[in-house]
Amino acid sequence: MEIRINDQKLDFALDKEKIIGEVLAALEQWISESSHILSGLSIDGESISSSMIETALSKEIADVKCLDLYTNPVSELAASSLVNLLDDIKGFEKCSFEEKGNFFYAWKESPCGMFLFHHMGELFMLCENTFLHGNITPSVLYSITEERLREVNTPTDELAKLEPLINEICERLVDLPLDIQTGKDARAAQTIQVFSSVTEKLFRVFRQLDIQGYLSQSADGKQLAEDINKFGDIIKELFQAFEKQDTVLVGDLAEYEAAVRLKELYLSIINNCRQTAQDAK
User: Fold this and answer.
1) pLDDT band at 219 (very low <50, low <70, confident <90, very high)
2) Other CB atoms within 10 Å distance of the CB of residue 221
3) Of 2-16, 51-65, 75-89, 185-199, the least confident
4) E strand spans, 44-155
5) Given its phi and psi angles, is residue 206 left (phi above 0), alpha (psi -120 to 50 degrees) or beta?
6) Which range, 3-12, 51-60, 84-93, 214-223, is most confident?
7) Cβ of 277: how many Cβ atoms within 10 Å?
8) Beta bridge pairs of residue 60
9) Nearest partner of 74 among 109, 34, 108, 110, judged by Cα
10) pLDDT tens-digit profile of 248-274?
């Protein structure tokens, strides 16, 4: 059986696979690691619709001459879904009170809703809070969606915009121990909140840079991914210390770990992008 992905013959040796479903399961990780999503399937020239998928997956390999798989980049589908979400928000605002009550249940089954549920869970929850619970206004959700769209379409620009924010929050992290000691609880809480928002955005932008090929997949690139994970552990430890009001640990983590590591991590991402761009020339 010949296997093709986006009309390109795939050099894939069948092992113990007996049916089409087993072949797709074997290829699933490879497709995911290439930052793509399976969007279509064809068997011997016949396009497989959703109603035919169960029968197609159980089809014996011996009875198939050619299996065609069609994929789309995750970033491309993300951008399309976010554009659709902007239209959905406008549509929601025009709905009557009664229509708004049923809007979320139909929306979550749409291609946009399903994509966000599986690939952008945080944004899906914000949509639920807007469309179903009314805890977030449509205008706020619209603004957040525009930001997410910029992160997908122009991740390098969004990375550059982060520099002044990171410099500011690093300065505030250094001041955090003194803020806590002098009773500036509101400022201390705001510092933690801003730090959380900035780091979440950096992580999102990093992911887009990674899946869109802006980052090197060499040893430096893998080290960067490890540094991201280690920094995530520092963030958790800092939040836990802040919740427990362990001022000594909060001070040490904020000044000597979080502030230093955040700036180092940002510069490492910037340098990796630049080096990757130079290597591509």
Assistant:
1) low
2) 15
3) 2-16
4) 46-47, 66-73
5) alpha
6) 84-93
7) 11
8) 19
9) 34
10) 999 999 999 999 999 999 999 999 999
Share of the chain above pLDDT 90, in %: 84
Determine the residue type at 232.
Answer: G
Question: DSSP letters along 205-265, please?
Answer: HHHHHHHTT-S--SHHHHHHHHHHHHHHHHHHHHHHHHHTT-HHHHHHIIIIIIHHHHHHH
Unique residue bearing structure tokens 């959700």: 141
For residues 211 and 223, the answer to whether their CB atoms sit within 8 Å is no
Residue 71: exposed, middle, or buried by beta-carbon count in 10 A (0-12, 13-18, 19+)?
middle
pLDDT (tens digit, 9 = 90+) per residue, 131-156? Answer: 999 999 999 999 999 999 999 999 99
Amino acid making up residue 16: K
In the chain, DSSP finds a helix count (H) and a strand count (E) of 12, 5
Classify residue 12 by its DSSP letter: -
Q: How far from the centroid of its chain's Cα atoms is residue 135's Cα?
A: 23
**Between the CA atoms of 13, 16, 19 and 24, what dihedral angle is there, to the nearest 10 degrees?**
-60
Sign of the CA dihedral with 173 first, then 175, 177, and 182 last: negative
Residue range 19-33, pLDDT digits in tens: 999 999 989 888 988
- Give the three-class secondary structure for 37: strand
For 51, other C-beta atoms within 10 Å of its C-beta total 7
